[in-house]
Write a structure and sequence with these properties.
Elements: H1 10-21, H2 26-36, H3 47-61, H4 65-79, E1 84-89, E2 95-101, H5 103-111, E3 115-118, E4 130-131, E5 134-137, E6 143-151, H6 156-169, E7 177-180, H7 184-194, E8 199-202, H8 204-215, H9 217-233, H10 237-251, H11 257-264, H12 271-274, H13 286-295, H14 305-332, H15 342-348, H16 353-366, E9 369-377, E10 381-389, E11 396-404, E12 410-412, H17 416-420, H18 425-433, H19 472-491, H20 495-519, H21 555-561, H22 580-585
Parallel strand pairs: 3-7, 7-8
Antiparallel strand pairs: 1-2, 2-6, 3-5, 4-6, 5-6, 9-10, 10-11, 11-12
Helix pairs in contact: 2-3, 6-7, 8-9, 9-10, 16-18
């Protein structure tokens, strides 16, 4: 095709912009255009033209990325006054830190601020700035985002800045619990300084994963089970102390530095030391890691700052749509009960479906308990033992419950309710044994109910946090797009109707241009980004964070990736069967 005959029309540029927003490469974009045009000869351009157009856009934006991000945040704040953002820069006027949060996330934090998870991820933008979302869990058990940050490094000062901005933006105070990876930079300084009244818990999964690497493969294979049993199955602190000591002695690791450090930090990650505070059922940061994987389907290393922010917004929109689907299901679908116990029928009307299924599981398991006996009693409380038949039906498993006579609240040593916020099977059996057929309000957390999001939220400035901005432009665009698709399909069925519509569109287009001119409305191309005239802040430098975004590898994987030496000559690159020395001697 001659260069003079090749042209990227406004419609093609608009389509390119939409496809780029969902990370469709230019080669794939051209194939889509070819399909729409029913043949490559009808496209009107070549793949090179698409690549050149993308190159020109990048060059036009170069040097203006940071200020364009600021203008995007300003436009978001104009549409939604509760939108919050803050940007920091260094002596050279280059962006170093960035934080933003929209009204939907602020409202979510007000409702579900008891537990947050904080972790960073890498390789999400062309400056390699570290993406640091702060997440939590909603009333459906889904991951939700409470704010997003970009950092140029992993220094203590950077994390302090981010957490301070996040806390400043939130409509309520500090969370009860924050879960992070066992990173000393975050653990000892940033969180301790900014969130002094928050329980800082380490991710138990990451710590248990490190056991094999820290202890060595031989010792881990023999004694990892002892340490795992001590961590997960200890019901009391005394049980943990005894079982941990036994595991250390049997493995002969009394002087192991890492084990000693983990033992000293036991109050931050061992379940029996943390189960006195509500955790929404979370013990690790794996939830946020799956969240990272979700967002990485929207972003890439080629994203500018503005592209990154808009694509994160798309990801948040999809997450929130999933939440709306769950809300709709809760309103229209009632789960089936598995028992005749009235407490189950009561809670299916109260809990969201996801949480009810967890509660229902505890109701079913409570039927395995057969006896409830008084152990001791005074004027304030009564201590009971509940007995469950073991699997062999020959022995009994005994558990203890303390019932406060004044408040009427019963507490079980497993800490199930305190951690999960859902009555455990032991409590359910105890209530049934004392003829209570409905779950008392003390055991129902509003954050797990269908009405968890009912109510209005106000920020510190007295502004109502509303997550609905001006969507008039978007709605008009959607309405016209849907109508045009129907009209084009119907019109293309005959030559006469096609000519009729084409002639009419030319006339309508001229009329619209005259109307817009008279109204003073400027025509803006979807793919065209407005370039600021004045640069107030420079683009960030390439980040050189210690994290590379690579997943953790086990000692077995590391060993397999290394070249093995020949058992005969000791060299690498072959084994004993193919060794020349072995074959010669043989």
């Amino acid at each position: 095709m001659l260069i003079s005959h090749r042209k990227l029309t406004k419609a093609k540029k608009c389509l390119m912009g939409k496809l780029s927003n969902v990370n469709v490469r230019s080669s794939q974009q051209f194939k889509i255009m070819e399909t729409m045009a029913v043949g490559i000869q009808n496209v009107g351009c070549m793949p090179r033209d698409l690549r050149n157009f993308e190159r020109d856009l990048r060059e036009e934006v170069r040097g203006h990325d940071a200020i364009m991000l600021l203008e995007y945040f300003e436009s978001e704040k104009e549409k939604k006054p509760s939108f919050y953002f803050e940007v920091d820069q260094d002596e050279e006027n280059k962006m170093t830190h960035c934080f933003w949060v929209d009204p939907t996330s602020k409202k979510a934090y007000f409702l579900f601020n008891d537990v947050v998870v904080f972790d960073t991820t890498y390789n999400t933008n062309k400056y390699r700035m570290i993406f640091a979302p702060i997440t939590g869990v909603n009333h459906h058990g889904q991951t939700i985002v409470f704010g997003c940050g970009l950092l140029s490094d992993e220094k203590t000062e950077s994390f302090i800045w981010l957490l301070e901005q996040w806390l400043k933006a939130m409509p309520s105070g500090q969370p009860k619990v924050i879960i992070t990876d066992q990173d000393q930079t975050i653990a000892k300084k940033a969180i301790a300084q900014v969130l002094p009244h928050t329980l800082h818990r380490f991710c138990i999964w990451h710590i248990m994963f490190k056991f094999r690497d820290k202890l060595g493969l031989v010792i881990a294979q023999s004694y990892y089970g002892l340490f795992k049993n001590s961590v997960y199955n200890s019901k009391t602190r005394e049980e943990f102390e005894a079982s941990w000591k036994n595991a250390v002695q049997q493995s002969k690791q009394e002087n192991h530095v890492w084990l000693t450090t983990m033992y000293e930090l036991r109050s931050r990650w061992i379940p029996t030391f943390c189960n006195h505070i509500f955790h929404a059922g979370m013990q690790s940061s794996q939830r946020v890691e799956s969240n990272h994987s979700f967002f990485k389907t929207f972003v890439s290393l080629n994203n500018s700052l503005l592209d990154f922010a808009t694509k994160i917004k798309r990801g948040l929109g999809q997450q929130r749509h999933e939440e709306l689907i769950r809300d709709h299901i809760d309103s229209n679908k009632i789960p089936k009960t598995k028992t005749y116990y009235p407490i189950e029928k009561q809670m299916r009307e109260v809990y969201t479906n996801e949480i009810f299924l967890r509660f229902q599981d505890q109701v079913v398991k409570s039927t395995a308990y057969l006896k409830c006996e008084t152990l001791k009693e005074d004027e304030h409380e009564c201590e009971y033992t509940v007995l469950r038949a073991a699997d062999d039906e020959q022995s009994w498993k005994v558990r203890q419950i303390i019932h406060n006579k004044i408040s009427g609240f019963a507490k079980y040593s497993c800490g199930g309710f305190e951690v999960e916020g859902i009555a455990c099977r032991h409590i359910i059996f105890f209530l049934r044994s004392i003829n209570i057929v409905h779950l008392p309000n003390e055991y129902i957390l509003d954050r797990w109910t269908k009405n968890a999001k009912v109510g209005r939220v106000w920020d510190d400035d007295g502004i109502e946090v509303r997550d609905v901005g001006d969507k008039s432009l978007i709605m008009r665009y959607i309405q016209l797009s849907q109508l045009s698709q129907v009209v084009i399909y119907e019109t293309s069925l005959s030559e006469e109707s096609t000519k009729y519509l084409t002639d009419g569109l030319h006339s309508v287009r001229l009329g619209i241009k005259e109307l817009l001119t008279s109204l003073g409305v400027e025509e803006v191309l979807v793919t065209k980004k407005r370039i600021p005239q004045q640069i107030l802040i420079e683009e960030p430098s390439q980040s050189k964070a210690k994290g590379s975004g690579k997943r953790l590898k086990s000692s077995k994987e590391i060993a397999m990736s290394k070249q093995k030496n020949c058992g005969k000559c000791g060299r690498t690159g072959h084994n004993i069967k193919t060794c020349d020395k072995h074959n010669t001697e043989g």
